Fold these 2 entries.
Entry 1:
Amino acid sequence: MTVLSAKSLRTRLFALISQLSDMKKAQSLLIFAFFLSFHFQAYSQQTQEAQLVLVAQNLSWMIGNWQGDGQQGGISYSSSLLVKGDLDGTVVIADRDTTGGFKEAILIGFDKGSSKYVATVFDSQKHIALFGCDLSSGQIACSQLTAPSGFQSKRTLRLGDPNTIVFTIEGGKTGEQMAKTIEITYHKK
C-alpha cells in the first residue's frame, strides 16, 4: 500500500479534475468542498470538546487546599481556598472563606459558544457576577462582564513561588486605572 503525502494527493486530485468536462469539474469541486467542510467541522468540534475536558487540567496548578493571609482596606485577615475539578474535569470550583465570615464560590469553565473561559462568582452577600477570563501560563485573569455601569472589576489568580497562589481583586471607574482592593497570598496546605 502506498501512502501519499497531502501535497501529492492534492496534485493527483487536481490532475484528475482537469481531465473532466467543465460541468463535471464543477460537480467534483462541489463534492470535494462538501466533504472538506465536514472534515473541518469535525476538527473544530473535537478541539472544543478537548478544551472542555482540559479545564481542570489547564488549571491543575490551582487544585488543592490553600491557606493565606491578605489585606483589604488596610485590614489584615486570614483566608482559606479549596479548589477542585468537578463534572468530569469540565469545571473548576474554588471555595473561598475569610476570617470575617465572607464566603464565595467561583465556578470556572469553558464556553463552547464563545470559545472562552468564563467564571461565575457567588458570594455570601448575595452577589452574583459573570466574568470573561483569559488563561495564560500559571495565571487566569477574569474581567467582570456584569459590572454596574461606569465600573470595572478584575480578579486574578496566578501561580507565585512554588506552592503559592496570589489572588487579587482590582476595581475602579471605567476608563481609569484600576486599584487593587484585595491581595491574598495562599500557601498549599
Entry 2:
Amino acid sequence: MECNEELRQLHRLLQRKTELEEMRAALREKQRKLAPELKERKRSARAEQRDVDRLERSSITALVYHATGKLEQQLASERAEAKAAQEEYASAVRKLEDIESRLQDTEMQLTALETGQQRYEQLLEQKRNAIKAVCGADADKIIGKEQTLAFLEGQITRLKEAYGTGRTARGAVNSVLSSLEHASIQNSLARGRGLINDLASLRDSLPEAQSAILSLKEYITGFEAKLAMTSIRGTLNFHPEELAIWKPGLITSSLATGSKIHLAEEKLASLQQRIDRLLEQIRSEIGQINRKLQKNRDSLEKMIVNMDWPA
C-alpha cells in the first residue's frame, strides 16, 4: 500500500530530525562561545595596528627609537605582531562564518522536515486507528502500549501535582520563619529594655507567628496527601501543637519566649529541609518517568510503522 510505504519513508527521514536538532544546539553553543573571542581578537588586532601607526608617524615613541637606532627593528617587530593579530582575527571571523553557514543550513533542513512531520503524524494516526479497528493481535499490542503510556502519563501528572503542592508548603514554611524572625527581634528589644514582657511590642508579632504555625498544618497535610498518590514515600511528621510560642493571657519572660521561638525556628528549618529532599526526589522521579515515556512512545511508533496496513 502506497500510504504504508510513504509512512515508512517518512519515519526513516524523521530519524534525521533528532540529529539535526542536536547539531543545531551544538552550533548555537559554539556561536555563543566564539562571540567574545571574536570581540577580543578584533580589539587585539586594532591595538597592535595602533602601535604600528604610532611608530610610522613622527610620534615621541618613534623619535626615541630613532634616536637609539632601533626604529626599523622595533617597527618590523610591531608589524609582525599586528599581522599575526590580524590573521588570528580573520581566522576567528572565518570560523564564525562557517558556524553561521552550517547553522543556517541546519535550520533550513529542519524547516523542510516540518511538513514531513505533519504528514507522518497524520498517516501514523490513520494506520493506528485502522489496525485497532480490525481487533487482531496487532491491535492488542498497540492497546497494551497505549495503556502503558497512559499509566506513565498519570504518574507524571500526580508527581507534578505533588511538586506544586510541596512548593506551596515550602513557601508557607518560609513565610512562618520570617514571622518568627520578626517576633524574635521584638522579643530581644523587650529583653533589652529589662521588661518581663513588653506587651505593646509583642502583642501583634507573637499571635501572628503562632497563627501562622498552626495554619501550616493544612499545607503540610495537603502535600502529604498528594505525595501518597505517587511512588515517593515520606512523611513530614509535623505537629504544630508542639511549637507553642504564645498563648492568650499567659505572660512569660522574654528569655523563655526567646527559647520557644528559637526551638520553633529549628524545627521549622528541619521541616523545610525535609520538604526540599522530597521535592528533589520528585524532580528526579519525573525525569526518570519522562525518559521511560519517551522510550515507550518511540517504541509504539516503530511498532505501528513496521506493522502491515490492514486491507
